[in-house]
Amino acid sequence: MERHWHLRKQTAALPIWTERADTVVDLTAAERELLEQHGAAALDEKLRCQGEFAFPALDLPAPRPLVREVKLDEALLVVPENDPFHRQMAAALSGTVAGGIACCTDREVKPECRKPLLLLGNSNTNRLIRELAARQLAFANGLVPGRGGWMIQTVTGGNQLVLAADAESLPELLSHWRNCLIRREGGWFLTRADHTAPGTACRERLGTAPELLRSIALHVSRLGEAAATFDGMSREIIRSFDSGGKAVNRDNGHPTIPNMIRMHWAYRYTGDRRFLRVFRDTLFGLVEYFLATPDGASYPSDYDFYLGNLINCWSDVEADELFSESDRLLIASFLLASCRLIDKYHRIYWPVQPELLRFNHETFPALSLEWAARYFETFVSSPEFTAWHEHAALVFSGMVERFGRQTENSSSYQWIVPSQKFVYDSLTSPERAARRAGMREVVAGIRAATDPLGMSVPYGDGEPVVATVAVFDLLRAAAALNPADPLPGTLLKRCFDGMGREPFLLLPQPGWGNLFAPDEPEEAEADGAGDWEVLPLAGHVRLRNEPGMPPEWLADKIAWRSGWDREAQYLLFEPYSCDAHAHFDMNSILAYTHHRRWGLVDNGYGKPSGVENMAEAYDRHETGPNCHNTLIFRDQEGNVLIPPPFAAVIARRRFGDCFLLETVLGNIGGWVWSRAVLLKRDGFLLVADRVRRTGEGSVGSIECQFNAPGKTVKDSPEAVLEQQGIRTFLTLRGDGEFRSGEYRTAGYDAVLGGRFYPWAQGAIRQFSRVAECTGQREFRFTALCELTPEHTAGFRLREDGIYGTFGEACELTGHAFGVDIAPGRMMIRYPAAPFLPEGLTQEKFGPCGPRPCRRGLG
Questions:
Q1: N or C terminus of the chain: which is more exposed, having fewer CB within 10 Å?
Q2: Exposed (0-12), middle (13-18) or buried (19+): which is 646, by Cβ within 10 Å?
């Protein structure tokens, strides 16, 4: 398909993308005249002297040379070491050619080998395929083509083929292979033979091509029902390149380029060329957005996040007959100019500082430019590409090498940098990446924050579905590259099953995903349930935010679960709040779940419902402590006070089926706050808060707040919410005035009543007690939350304790909280103890107020 386009330039000025300033604009009359009279080289030099550059690039003389056929007489069949089946497969392929094809193992191929390589197996079995998968160029893995399926994939430009099959599908692969053989002068040749025939298990998981497309459209594309057909997906992506300018400021990055990448991956996973045609049409749509939009084009939202993935996709399919030679030159030149654009952008807004912890706005462009350099240097040389390699090496060294955890405290953002570090390391050595010590730490963090529904708890700037999607790639890679460790694979299965085995979940995540996938694990074992699960806090978090706080009192997250089945009871607790993308929800309940229902929820990202303007949505998003299950301290004028960042974990106890967690947070404007969390297995959650005055301060009121989904049956201090057969009984007693309300967010609008959480719709309900600080020295708030299929509660909170069915009599005592349990009741008592344990003083908590996100350890 021939494309007519005219040359533009990127201006010297490059405002931040939320400004939506048109910076890719038409040439001036003088510049056009220079091009006509003196040629592209003269124009290119003039633009560079002005701090500008041509769009598309002018310095690619031709597209990349392609290998469109393989000379088999010179080829090597490469099989996994100690693998009898692939030896048999190699012999069968060799037998189709007179004179045969030489064979060796994946350990015997030398780096300097320039022969055509026929790689047998997948990224789990063959070392060389694993290296190609790390570069996002080889797609055969534990999922694709799967049992009973087969695949032949040409690695464009690399003179390599990947051939995957099993004993059942090998005859079909051989038949296709023979049909692609050509005998002519010079020997035997294999023409481009690409084909994917997914096996039964793979087809069952991915669904049909229309089902996979619909899954993408409805659950991850941000485009909705209009994109649920192939024509619709093309149309909606192309339409969405238009941001509407600064006044409208629609997101024109995340609903577009990631979906283009998904279309390419879906093509490779299924073999269905309709996905490839969508990729082609939308790629030309992106080119036309930059080169043909009247008045010019602006930097798309987070363009640097996904450009490297897009280049990898282009590298894989540019040899396809859908693209002419002139198409290929145009697209390669356009992508090179785009790389210069993101390089310019990150140097302006995210210049890397080697001594600091990393942030995702540094790692995204670094990874994109690394992939770009690997593509362009296969057919053209430039010191520019060396600089991109050096920049990526700098970004992925230093602090990111030392620590698995970086600066973000959010259930989606938190996993991006570790994922990208893994991808970058995999480009050099997948084995080294798999052995990385921080990987196990990251998997443990994912495990703690995964609820019984298989969804990640959306803490910090995280949304329920987005947070879950963010962890799949890390789990897939960890399970595929460390098959002896059962934890990643079982977690992966729980998440996939818990989210209804939606097909889109099987595709990598654009921007930080990888092409590794394990064989589908067996039924997950029920492990690690029934006691407190404490994630240690990375030492640098304390040192950067409040170094005087003793480390022995601190934790990152604390989880408790009764089991891993979907009916299980689960709690996630947040002991601290600081760093990037965190919310001010220290000492809060992030999630409480039972009987397949969310009982208490965090507010997720907190972006307001119905706001299309991206800058406005980010500026107005609620970061707490409002809309979180915590205490809210306000001054005399009603302004929210942000407590010190770390709560001290001072007790963890258990007896029988009761589990106690106790924390304390001091130096809050002259007050200290003690929180006790008690779980009765298969029963209830009890939260007991005491706040005591310790001196003069500015606190004017204290609000104890809880947030829950569901339809209100009873709105009172003994609230009842209905969620399709399961009721939440939430009783809130203590000091102050009872209040109730509700809120909506874009994140919960997208999930409530939908595929992943159909049991509640509409707003999140909010229940509070608000006490005015007018001389009283201590306030108490007590909340009881029970989820049950019964129409009446099994437990009742009264002034003196909880009444219901309890087991054997016992005492359970923490530091400043305890209960006496008898067969019919649980009596709450407060031992005569100071809130702060010995050795912990008010001053060690540090002052109130948000902490700036310091990324250095000095």
A1: C
A2: buried
